[in-house]
Design a protein that fits this description.
The complex is a heterotrimer of chains A (368), B (195) and C (192).
Chain A: E1 4-8, E2 20-26, E3 29-36, H1 44-49, H2 56-59, H3 69-83, H4 89-113, H5 115-118, H6 121-142, E4 151-152, E5 155-156, H7 164-177, H8 179-185, H9 190-196, H10 204-210, H11 215-221, H12 227-230, H13 251-275, E6 298-305, E7 310-317, E8 325-329, H14 333-343, H15 349-358, H16 363-367
Antiparallel strand pairs in A: 1-2, 2-3, 4-5, 6-7, 7-8
Helix pairs in contact in A: 4-6, 4-13, 6-7, 7-13
Chain B: H1 3-17, E1 20-27, E2 30-35, H2 40-49, E3 54-63, E4 68-77, E5 82-91, H3 107-118, H4 149-156, H5 176-191
Helix pairs in contact in B: 1-2
Chain C: H1 14-31, E1 34-36, H2 47-51, E2 63-65, E3 73-77, H3 82-94, E4 100-104, H4 107-110, E5 132-134, H5 141-156, H6 162-168, H7 170-181
Parallel strand pairs in C: 1-2, 1-3, 3-4, 4-5
Helix pairs in contact in C: 1-5
The chains are: A alpha+beta (368), B alpha+beta (195), C alpha/beta (192).
Bound molecules: iron/sulfur cluster (SF4).
Amino acid sequence: MKEMKLFLGPQHPGMHGNASVHLFVDGDIIKRSYLLPGMLHRGFEKQMERKLWVNNIALIPRVCVPEPDINEMAFALATEKLLKLDVPERAHWIRMIMLEFARISAHLMAYGGLGGPTGNYTLMYHAHIDRNLILDIFEKISGARIYHQYIVIGGVRKDLPEGIDEEINAYLNDLESRLNEYRDLGIDNPSVVKRIKDTIMLPEAVVWELGVTGIGMRSATNKPYDIRKVMPYARYNQVEFEVPISDYSDARSRLDIKIKEVQQSINIIRQCLDKMPEGEVRVKPSRGQSMRWTVPKGYVYAPVESSRGEFGYYMVSNGGTTPWRVGVRGASYPQGLLGIEKYLPGTRIDDAALWVDTMGICSPEIDR
Amino acid sequence: MNSISNLEAVDNIINSTGKVIKKEPISDFQVAYEVNKSDVHQILTSLKLEGWKQLSYLSAVDWPEENKFELVYILLNWDKPVYIQIRAKIDRENPSMNSIIPIFPGAKYYEREAHEFFGIAFPGNPDYKKQLIMEQWDDIPPLRKDFDPRAYSDRKYPSREYPDNFSKKDKENESLEKQAKRRKRARKLRTGGEE
Amino acid sequence: MISTKYTEKKKFNKQEIDRKWWEVGDYFRRNSLWLLMYCTGCCAIELPPSMTSAYDMERLGMGPMATPRQADILLVSGYLSLKTLRRLIYTYEQMSEPRYVVALGSCPINGGIYHDSHPVINQLDQYIPVDTYVAGCMPNPESVLNGFVDLMEGIKNKTANGWKKYHKNYDWYKKNQFDVLGEVVIDDEFHQ
Ligand code: SF4
């Protein structure tokens, strides 16, 4: 049979975000495939070079839309490292609460995204309503639903509102009690398991070859390779949590790890609320004028663990009022570009959407 | 795990394979080395053999005053958690650097991106010349310092015209002069004094 | 009281009958608007909440559609880079008429936060006609739904006639599109 060309995306219900996978198929086996990125390109790295350090805070959450807080954190970490600035103790804990909530919401979205390619829309509806409740909590804390601009250089913008503890606890209890429901709907649901078990394998050798990080890596190597554990930032060294791992990486085990990580995040948030000290939440990086302060010369790379893997900002300062160069290391770069080109061929057409979903591919961070 | 001894281990590996121009310890988990362009491949190879198996990031920095591009390779070893930045300067005229695909296959798309944004050639990478992110780009590579996105945007995309009295917030500062003054001040703050 | 006196039935001419039928059509149309799911930018992240249980778009008779041929609304959710604009125009021209365009966010209005960025266009209505704008960065689900209600009003009052404008000023739109996108010479591995 002749090779035929198909497009998955950019306008496609199974595609997450505005990207396109070009598939050359023979029957329903993929022969060659490429990701066509760039449809969300907006010249981020150039834009950031032209804005003051403070102004950049408004811009950075837009790099990765489903999980914006990691951008704020990476940017703040990098700048603080350049400034040699110490953040108040309480701010660290508030940051962790935000980051873990962001992780839960991103995981829920990805897990609900399984509903698209498998036709199991109930799952999607459940996941999105739970995610929406997180957005409400975010709105109470920071005033915005998606782009919070809450983690800023030198701490967080303002303290937590009063009475948020009970609300968070109530939400966490609710979510925790329903995690089993999620399992039943998704990864333990016999009609879905047929599709996700033993498909879209990711052997350990491929992980090292491509440089996949995050859940993909942990599910294949059976080692707790998580930046929160290996190189703790904020106060991750003072909370107790496990890094779920497995030694067999198919679509199902990766989704399984996602659900387990949600449980761990819930534990972390509870500990944060317990251990959080009182006090200041923000220090001013006061060098020069109120807005046009400068940052000493230097090069720094600041990684954080996002829901998809290692996410980092590479920042160069030449002592000026704006960054000299900002590079964004998107966590989905390896599996999104090289992974689709090298390892998607040989699978079936319907696996392409599952690949995009379970590998954790976020197109805005590839394009920037 | 003791990260200090890890840093020493890195020092030994790099000093035994190539000449270090400058070393910058950044934190307990990160160290930067500036090396010669010709040593980069050797150093990367020996680091990979020692366990720095993951290429986290590859990109370039533009230094127009020195007339150089600076290439950055960031490696990570998950078992001995140290990030290593390897930096090498190359000429800004006809910039070119041999590809590191034989060492790190994952570099393929990073190199294509660096070519697209900076115009650096990577011989050895089979399709570094193809456009990845943008389509039919018609100017100099956009991340070079001499490219001005604002001028490009003004030239290419018509922007919306607003009448002077478009937004009236408070009655007192409504007069046109005051508005113009405010706008001028805002522009000055934004651009740092130049008009 | 209704008069019982016989009056001769009024004869409508063809135009009036057409108009009546359009009104009937518009009534049904505005109560079953189908969206095209093309998430062009970051404002699209607020669409799942407004579509699922929390805000439930379906009570307005709206639902997501997979193909452009079945959809009434092209939802432009956010900024458009040139690469997306090309695909957006293809999609718009594939849709059957009447078709409406709703633009979310401040980016399609005047460039928003990306007003000086090189790959992002500044003004969407230079390239395709827009019926309703929803301002905000990003507009939350309430305002998204409000925008759709505005569009329904527009259909009722016959102000949402962007697709007619597109026919009328076709040359102008085409010229603008051509100016910014240039000729289509695509030659890369994706299009062998
Ligand atoms: S208006 Fe704001 S949220 Fe919407 S696309 Fe533009 S930058 Fe993103």
